[in-house]
Amino acid sequence: MPAPRAYRPIPIVTLKIVRRRHLWAHYPPVTTPAFAAKLVRDFIDEPDREWLVALLLDEQHRLTAIHPVAIGKGHYVLAEPREVLTIALLHRAYAVILCHNHPTGAVTPSAQDLEATSQLHAAGRIVGVTLWDHLILAPPRQVFSFRRAGLLG
Predict the structure, then answer these.
(1) What gap in Å lies between CA 73 and CA 63, rounded to an integer?
(2) Which parts of 63-110 fold into alpha helices (H)?
(3) pLDDT in tens, 82-106
């Protein structure tokens, strides 16, 4: 005779967005890498570490939220496409501009940057979130745009 099954608690959860602070401003649509880079540079508190930041946009490319995805432990930052897409879906974003900084000053994308961007672009298409661009920022004011470089199909 089989042993009776033990009951275990199953959590009942609710997801919600907690707004930490607001930027009271009227921004035009985010249509250029330079403007997106300015928004992120103003947001990053510790430019000596790599930050991964998502700019979340509506259908007219108006900024709806700025969300820090991850903060690195030095000169690298790790995040899975599902983390970025979860954030985008919770905010009901139409498009995402992903930005991260290279504190070393090298604006060239690494092999990991290229792979992660390709994966996120493909996954975003499946769930209906456009990866509009991925920017790499480096001091003093360098910006690399995956879109402008033709690396976002």
Answers:
(1) 28
(2) 81-90
(3) 999 999 999 999 999 999 998 888 8
Q: Is 92 left (phi over 0), alpha (psi -120 to 50) or beta?
A: left
Cα 147 to Cα 63: distance, rounded to the nearest angstrom? 18
Q: Domain 33-145 is in which class?
A: alpha beta
pTM for this model (two decimals): 0.83
pLDDT at 128: 96
Q: What does the chain come to in residues?
A: 153
Beta-carbon contacts of 33 under 8 Å, excluding residues fewer than 6 positions away, are: 133, 135, 143, 145, 147, 148
* Token output for 38: 């300015």
In this prediction, residue 25 has a pLDDT band, given cuts at 50, 70 and 90, of low
Cβ atoms of 133 and 145 within 8 Å: the answer is yes
Distance in angstroms (rounded) separating the CA atoms of residues 47 and 101: 8
Give the span between the Cα atoms of 14 and 139, in whole angstroms. Answer: 41
Amino acid present at 138: A
Would you kindly state where each structural domain of the chain is located, as residue ranges?
A: 33-145
Q: How far apart are CA 76 and CA 146, in angstroms?
A: 18
